[in-house]
Every structure is written in structure tokens, then in C-alpha cells.
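Hey,

The postdoc asked me to send both predictions to you directly instead of through the lab channel. I've kept everything plain text so nothing gets mangled by the mail client. Protein one:
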Amino acid sequence: MVLNGSTYYLMYDQIGSLRTVTDASGTIVKKIDLDSFGNILSDSNPSFTIPFGFAGGLHDRNTNIVRFGARDYDPSIGKWTAKDPIDFLGGDTNLYGYVLNDPVNLFDSLGLLWFKPKDAPDLFGRKKSWLEPGSPASLFFEKYIPAMYETAYFHDWLVDTLINWGVPDLLANYPTMAFAFEVAFITNFLGPGLTSKPNPNICK
């Protein structure tokens, strides 16, 4: 980052929270300590203002609110200040809840929690393939990549439909993955998501 002609380097933690700022020589000019929900515990240099805050959001030092894409987050209560725009498709029954109360491992940079709902069945992948539902790789996609759980739901329904129409499995499966992701992403971003869930069975 270049500020007033000087170069600074920003260091973040595992969820994208800004923790340390150094100058070009490596000297620490700002160090921030946060609790799990983003409350600032200490700031070594408050006068050195920078907008980047908890989990990669934009921090307003006057209100202590953090801005993420579609919503504002209040660290003092560990919740969003508005309901999830995609409603229960965000994966939480609490529409104001922040990342299923697991801020150490999860983050929501858009304010739209498009991850696997708690206790929901594993969907991403196919049995007897290199990526089986419930495998570590499958769970990573569902838990950490936005819209991927919804992608799996839509993709399984699409593959079932194409196979029932006589399309060979090889053509029905892999070539449609990118399209399924686009549909899931756009549907969730522009509206309340897929309100009528398909019921895939062949791909399980």
C-alpha cells in the first residue's frame, strides 16, 4: 500500500483481518489485536488510520461498524445490523447471525452467507469418484467457497434431468459444472436464491 508517497506492507490473519502494518524497512508502524468477533482490543498506533478491518471488511472508526458488501457488521454484538438479503439460503436460521458463530474459521466477505447450512447433508461431489461428498476436499468447497453448496444442489438436479433425457453421464456431469456455479452465484446475488429446491437422487 502506498500512502502519502510512502510504501507500507499489510499483514492479515487466516480470515483476512488486518493485524500488522510495516514500513518499507520492515519496521512495525501499527499492530492491531482483535477478539474472535472483531472487537479491537488494542491498537498500537490509532493515529495511523487505515480502512481495512476485521475479516477484510471496511472499518468505520467512528461507529466501529464493519462494512461487508451487502451488509454492515457490529463486532460489539457479533451480529449483522440487517437481515441476510438471501434469507435462509445463507445457511443460518438466525438471519442476523455471523458465520454460524464460528468467526475463527469462517468469514463472509459479501455479507451473504452462501455456505453449507449446519447439519445439512453433504452434497458436493459424487460417490465413487475422486471427489466424494463428505470428503475433506468436498467439505472445504462447501464451507469456504461462496455459493458452492447451492451449486452442488443445482448441479445434481441438472445432471439427473439430463441423464433422464438420455444424455450420457460424461456429457451431463463435468461440462455443466461451470454453468451450475454461474446460476447459483447469480441467483443468490440478485434475489432470494432458489426458492424451490430440486431433489436430486441419481448423483448420490
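Protein two:
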Amino acid sequence: MQVEVTPEETAVLIRWKKRTDNYVLVRMKSEAILYASRGVDVGIIAEMVERSEKTVREWLAGWQASRMCSVLTGHAGNQNAAKLTRTQKQDLKAVLAQPPSRSGIDAEFWDVPALRDVVKILFDVEYESDSSYQLLLRFCGLSFKLPDPFDKHRDEQAITRRMTEVKAQVNQLLEAGCEVYAVDEVRLEHEAETRRMWLPKGQRTKFYVDRQKVSQSFFGALSLTSKKMRLYPIEGNQNTEQIIGALERLQRETKPRRSLLCLTTRGSTTPKP
């Protein structure tokens, strides 16, 4: 399929083909049209530009219809028309069979951003839509779907059963005249953020952010008899030694009472007087 190209058009197409700042699609179309103007077979042109014969015929038909305008199409920016050949797809399939780090891609697994990078690096081809990369993943035997959702709900039946046991145990202790406490540890954090901006004349604005974080741990004991809370700050690290110290302090403060019982909802812990 031979096309007619004037000397002026030939000069422009040669410049477009040589310019590296042009889109890849523009350079490929220019090269294909120049070859066709010399009577080169479409199959050879497709092999030279690494595109299918059908695509090359469409380029040449567009040239005959709108001349130079067909080279600078609206698809040049997004390059959706610049598709990979079968050979390139097979090469890409071999690349995706290896971890991304083998190809110099900083990613833990293959996803659309990582695939976009490797296609650009290996074949100098870009697609505008993510769906094109998702189809490439499917062609290469990879799934572009998100993992199946994981049910993070707790075992509601086990929780209900344990709470029933705790309530029965607490009621027995309260009826026996014991004072029951529910205890827990908590850690509060307060973060203050200060933003400062410096605007020196004739220079770029400088922006500073200072963050200060303060934290404090507490041991709390709620009396199920009087409904009053006893709160004890924990100094330093929140560890077993600190918790034992808070329990001893709670025991000293409530010593005149008949009995003291610290209760937890954990299944492996039994209330002790």
C-alpha cells in the first residue's frame, strides 16, 4: 500500500521522526508513512514500527484522508493507540513472572503503577487508562482484582457466652458482700503541632512544622458496688511491675473493707480476693 507524500511533507515527517521530544506515536506514524511513500510492504513496515499490519493500514488510510492532521491525532497525548505487539506482550509476561525488584521497580508486588513503569521503561509505551494496564495483567496471567474481603468480626457467640459467665460470677460475689472492681490500663497521647511560615522578601517561602507528643498511662479500677472510679497514673513504661504496684496501692486504700476483688474479662483470669 503506497501513499503519496510531497517533498515538503517528507521534510516535516523526517523532522518529526528524529525529534525525541515528540510523542512515540507521532514518531512511529511518521516513520510508517515515509516507508509507505517508498513502496515498502505493509508487513515490513509493521515489523519495523512493532505494530500490527491492521494498525499500519489505519495510519496510512488516515494519511490519505487528512494528511498531516492524521499524524497529530488526539490519541497522541494519551497513546492509547500505541499498543504492545504480541512479541512484546510475551516478553512482558516473562518479566511479570519475576518480582518487580528484578526489573528495578520499587514495589512489593505487581500492580497498575508498577506495570506502568515497566512498560514505559522496556517498550517506551504509555496508556492513559488504568483499564488498559489491568487487561495487560490479565493477559499475563495475573489478577487485577482486590483480595477477597476478610471477615474481621469477632466470635460473637464466644463473647456472649463469656459475658454471661462474668455477669453470673459478679452477681454471686456482690451477693456475698464482696466489693468487685473491674480494672484496665489505658494510655493517653497528646500531640501538639506548630506550623510556622517565613516569607523573606525576594525568596521562596519557607515552611516549618514542629510536632511534640506527650503520653501518660493510667491504671483504672471501677467499683461495681459504688460505681466510683479510682485512677492511678503509671510512671515510665506500662509493664507488669507498674500494674502490680497499682494493684497493691488499690488494695491498701480499700483494706478496711470486707474484701477486694479485681476482675478482668479475659477467659484465662480468675477473680481473686
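Summary for protein two, as requested: Strands lie at 179-198, 206-223, 229-234, 260-263.

Thanks,
C.
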